Automatic annotation (TrEMBL):
UniProt-listed SMART domains: TPR, Trans_reg_C
The OmpR/PhoB-type domain, residue ranges: 2-100
One GO-annotated biological process of the protein: regulation of DNA-templated transcription
Domain of life: Bacteria
Entry protein name: TolB amino-terminal domain-containing protein
Annotated region of DNA binding: 2-100
Keyword DNA-binding: yes
Stored InterPro entries: OmpR/PhoB-type_DNA-bd (IPR001867), Sig_transdc_resp-reg_C-effctor (IPR016032), TPR-like_helical_dom_sf (IPR011990), TPR_rpt (IPR019734), WH-like_DNA-bd_sf (IPR036388)
Molecular function terms, GO-annotated: DNA binding
Record's keyword terms, sorted: DNA-binding
Amino acid sequence: MATILEFGPFRLDGDAGILFHGAEPTALGQRAVLLLALLVRQAGVPVSKDALIEAAWPAQAIEDSNLTVQIAAVRRTLADISGEARWIETLPRRGYRYVGPTVTKSDPGPARTPQAPLLSLPDRPSIAVLPFTNLSGDAAQDYFADGMVDDIITGLSRINWLFVIARNSTFAYKGRAVDVKQVGRELGVRYVLEGSVRKTGTLVRITGQLIDASTGMHVWAERFDRRSEDVFALQDDIASSTVGAIAPSLRRAEINRVRRKRPDSLDAYDLVLRAQPDVDSGMPAQVTQALVLLERAIALEPAYALAHGNAAMCHHCLFLRAGLQETNREASIRHARSAIAHGQDDAPALTLAGFSIGMDGHDRSAAFIAFEAALAISPSSALTYILGSVMLGWGGEADRAIEWSEQGLRLSPFDPWAFAAFDAQAMGHFHRGRYEEACRAAYRSVQANPLHSITHVQLAAALAKLGRLREAKAAATRVLELHPTFRYGRQFQGVNCAPALASSLGDALRVAGLPE
């Protein structure tokens, strides 16, 4: 998790490359932010010109005048906003030193972004399942505990009347001592499930307790002992018991809906669990690693829908971010079709497959059939809404894209895929000519995932439309740093961008300096 530097009225998120004044991002460019971050981290200590140049222009030979220009931009921004002139001192022939207000560091943890509204309780029972503590004494078993929780969340999400927070948001609390009342307030839920897993050899012991977050009172607690080959039955037991504790009058038929078809091979299941974090990263190098594990899982169990869905997403990432190679596009569609064929009761598999069919196969109708099927199975599937919002955004359905993205973020406020939801909002607002709103959404997308080039594309376009050309060109430069072969015409063709949106975005990106 990134560290936020706070000084005077400013907050600096170095990973996102954004300086904030209160809740609003400032106009300071990427290199200037890097310089300011180094100076602020070493507040009161001289920083040499060489160190500053290496921070902002790593391994590049540049003139000192470039540094002078960027430092001047930092000083001007800080002074104009704060009304105070004394922030950075020049040390002749030595470098510079930060001399402003005291600097404090904070871990943002899962705190909401400043613009996010407080969450009210839904009009139906709501629950968040926190990461279970791994008591096995072996950190390598974390993936097993995480996978256990993931399946419990998936099972609970199949209950139509239950509002379930996505695992990507609840896992923001992993490894932290938490107050369940605060968790309930932050996630907007009535109930919180927490527990622990101890795996020794073939034996697994899970303890779980359900707490009413509004009062802190325990609603239910149980301990389960199983052999690891019975792990799927164990997951169903816990999910069913939790649902029963929330609504004791629940019909047995509803509880049975928690149960779903499982992969026959525990080895294949284990491989998918290990691959999942790299799949979710959306980064080419990591998804390449994930594909090795997923291909092994599919070799063990050819009809494993979720393995195919994840493989489709990996190839989608490689297609868009590693050269638009036809082999990746074809593999994405092939695995997506397998996921749909074998995953009619698996919401995550249908979601990932629908996204690949729509984005890479350019069949949005088939994609939304898969999305609707996923939501019929799991109404609380945040990922379905988020990925659907991206497809709606590129398809030019601005209002629906914003609606779906907001629903996805409500279900999973701290989701690692939040950048994609904000990206969809930026596209929607851009398409409607609301460039200030598009810029704000794009900034939030960049902050959520500063290493994803598309987030900077949306930011460059919105800034260009606002006439903020210096900042737009800085964002465009960052796009090419992250994705040197980026060409917006090829990108629009790859995602089947709606013609009117492609024309407007293309005009803005051309002004920002990105190549067609």
